[in-house]
# Entry
Amino acid sequence: MNQPDQHPDLLDTWTDRAACKGRTDLFFVNRGDTTQMNRAKAICNTCPVIDNCREYVIYNPERYGIWAGMTERDRRAYRLEQGIKLPNAPHGTRRRYAVGCRCSDCRLSNARFRAEWNKR
# Structure
């Protein structure tokens, strides 16, 4: 797998062929909604570009949603299992929180992000 900086237009090449194209609302499920989560994962399992999606999301942490048939927790476990370390982001940023930091600055940044997200 390659680092995200080596794929500046990775999204432009494979997302047009993704099984989820135009149906992204199905992939942002509430925790505990196993029915919708399983439905999203089933779509991922039929996707012709699941490997591309997995490569993208492993190196570009997305905190929310099902990507490549994996939840955020699944992706974190996959990185740990594979020994994949992401470049450090500064404390007090959403990205640092997304990769697992739970210091007070990162938790506050994530709380602010979620508050803004919920206003939408």
In short: The mean pLDDT is 81.
